[in-house]
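QA checklist item 7 of 12: single-chain prediction sanity check.
[x] sequence parsed
[x] length recorded as 489
[x] structure emitted
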Amino acid sequence: MKNKKPVFFIVFILILAFAASTVFGVKRTYGDLTTTYINGLEDIRLGIDIQGGVDVTFAPADDTVDATKEQLESVQEVMKTRLISLGINDYESYIDETNDKVIVRFPWQSGEANFDPEAAVKELGETAQLQFRKGYSYDSEVADDGSVTVIPKGDIVLEGTDVKEAYVNYAYDESGQIKTGEFAVGLTLEESGKEKFKNATQEAINQDTAYLDSTNSSGQSRYVISIWMDDLCFSAPAVNDVIMDGSASISGSFDYEGAKQLADKINGGALPFNLKTETFKTISPSMGTGALQVMLIAGVISLLLIMIYMIVLYRLPGFVAAIALVGQVAGTLAVISGWFGFYNSSTLTIPGIAGIILAIGMGVDCNIITGERIKEELNAGKNLEGALKSAYHRSFTSILDGNMTVIIVAIILMGAFGVSSSFFSKALHWLFFMFGVSTEGTIYSFGFTLLTGVIFNFIMGVLASRLMLTSLSKFKCFQNRKLYGGAEK
């Protein structure tokens, strides 16, 4: 049998290194230039309720314009796209149909001492540039601070002013039958765009290399016209026919919500009116100045007291549980700060902190269940190795059941983002619509941190704890049954 004694030290060191990098980040300073490789806690964007933010109302620049609901929704969609691209999910957006207004609230830029709210509002309210380009290719530039700027390539085929309307339509198969549960985005072009789009689609059908999808890895050549909003490409459909009459369809296995979002984005770049900032004000943090520091200190003290309680009550399993709790908290904060490359930084709000605390409670519950099981198995007369194996096996079902219920609640709170066209997703969207629940801002933040914390509870509280405790039990000095809460045999 392989020697498993070093496993504890390996897992322990990995958790400590992970926690340290989460707290302090990884940066390199050369002169006045600081390069950030891994974000730390100071790089986390704080929500409106913690550090304040901006409240702005946008309206048509031309007072004679009577905006429709669809046009206002398009403006709102553009705002959301820009805020999300900045890594802000703690935003609130509303539509006032009666007065033709869109109201947006978002937090300050994290770590920016001289934040210029007027410049931020100006950037947010600038008219979005919708462009249809030949092919799908782009360049990217990395700034000194690590941020990446996308520069679209390919000649412009159409601009937003060439699009009259985008709307949701049914998707059809090759025989002309409606595809059940699938939708498409229909396009109606202005006179200025019909001839240009006809020529472009003809060139794509003729397999002009300018229309090649340079990022396609399927091995088959795709001739596409990509659709860009500013520097964000949100669709690159293949050209299958020459569009003669200025009416086109974009298909891609959309559900209704996906098709509507794409139509709103396209309409957002083709709004018949410019925006003006009608009202603008800064928002003071609802917590009050300095409350964040007090809350963090209280959180650290509470975590230390919990760790001490676990060690006193469960001894060696409690010590291992304390290490796992540190890893769980570090993992949740790492996801928020953007430590992992697959997810950009998120926004931390008061409800988000509440989600972290609740997830810690689930982590403590997980370790209490395991600790009590170990005691029971030892007191039933099993040897140490058998007691640990049986305790982790028997406690797993209870831990899984408890955490799965929390995961379901967290997903519902997050609004089931991006869950294609399943019946479950549609039912959730319907429920949110009926009860007027927003899937953005503070509710999302609470659900996000709760879900993340519970996932790391499985990783740290179940897997890592088992590896560490089983490893320690191999050492002769840790084989006293009293260290695990059992009676001396």
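[x] summary fact logged: Residues 416-440 have pLDDT under 50 and may be disordered.
[ ] second reviewer sign-off
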